[in-house]
Amino acid sequence: MAEGIMYSLDWLFAIGVLFFLLSAWAIGANDVANLYVTSVSLRSLTLVQAGCLAVLTEFIGAIALGEKVTETIRKGVFTLDPFKDSPGTLILAMVIAEAGSAIWLTACTRAGFPVSTT
Asked: Which residue ranges does UniProt annotate as crossing the membrane (predicted)?
């Protein structure tokens, strides 16, 4: 029975993945703008050089520190115990939180506002 419920929520998971990708783009765009704007504006780096460095440093940061961040969020921010009998509610809550974050980050990045995502 629970297996059938989970398959019926695949669409919600797919929407969550789309918002996750939007969020990842917005975080990267915002971080790159905040980190390299001075170097590019002072002409220490060209835009292409800053882009290449950004790809490299963002990737290394995600690989090197991503596990620790995920662990902190998984165990340090909230517990999953209340959702053991209601996985659909957990998926919905996660998708809504990710959608809100992605939309806010995208809007701020588009408007040129610096947002701390650490």
From this structure: 7-27, 47-65
